[in-house]
């Protein structure tokens, strides 16, 4: 198992543990499932499709808060992204950000080359069809400020 495999496994375990152990479990699991369904069981960063599940934690997709709940993020689908485990790990490390226009900004110097090649060619995030589920721009600005120190 290489380092990328470790990161992918860690991402799924961390996301699964949070959703399974969080207070208001039913609400969190409902949001988790809504996010996966809204994105069509696809990674928002790469657009890669994964096998749907009807319940429980997905082994290949993490549901990641743009702004964590403990830091004031809302418990709403628009504050979460459906990401492959590798994309989730890179997002948590600040290796990529999302602009107000849903453009993806990456730091290819720190992102694994094999992963960087999987990014969407048009440079945009894969979005759910329903605009209600699009990432909240306020939370995206918070994430950029947290990572870059500026909006």
Describe this structure in words.
It comes from Devosia rhodophyticola. This is DUF4262 domain-containing protein. With 151 residues, this protein is of the alpha+beta class. The protein has one domain. The chain has 5 helices and 4 strands, in the order H-H-E-E-H-E-E-H-H.
Give the tags:
two-stranded antiparallel ribbon; 11% strand; 4 strands; 5 helices; 151 residues; 38% helix; disordered N terminus; alpha+beta; globular; DUF4262 domain-containing protein
**Low-confidence spans: pLDDT under 50, at least 5 residues?**
1-20
Radius of gyration: 14 Å
- Straight-line distance between termini: 37 Å
Quickly count the helices: 5
Q: How many strand segments?
A: 4
Mean pLDDT: 79
How would you briefly describe this protein structure?
The protein has 151 residues and is of the alpha+beta class. Helix content is 38%, strand content 11%.
Protein topology:
Elements: H1 3-21, H2 25-38, E1 61-65, E2 80-84, H3 85-92, E3 96-98, E4 104-106, H4 113-116, H5 137-148
Helix pairs in contact: 1-3
């Amino acid at each position: 198992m290489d380092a990328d495999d470790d990161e992918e496994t860690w991402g799924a375990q961390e996301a699964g543990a949070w959703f399974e152990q969080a207070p208001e479990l039913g609400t969190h699991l409902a949001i988790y499932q809504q996010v996966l369904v809204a994105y069509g069981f696809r990674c928002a960063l790469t657009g890669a499709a994964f096998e749907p599940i009807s319940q429980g934690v997905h082994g290949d997709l993490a549901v990641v808060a743009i702004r964590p709940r403990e830091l004031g993020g809302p418990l709403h689908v628009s504050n979460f992204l459906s990401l492959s485990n590798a994309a989730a790990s890179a997002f948590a490390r600040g290796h990529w950000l999302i602009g107000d226009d849903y453009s993806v900004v990456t730091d290819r110097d720190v992102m694994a080359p094999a992963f960087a090649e999987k990014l969407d060619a048009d440079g945009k995030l894969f979005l759910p069809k329903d605009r209600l589920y699009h990432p909240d721009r306020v939370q995206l600005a918070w994430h950029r400020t947290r990572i870059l120190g500026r909006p």
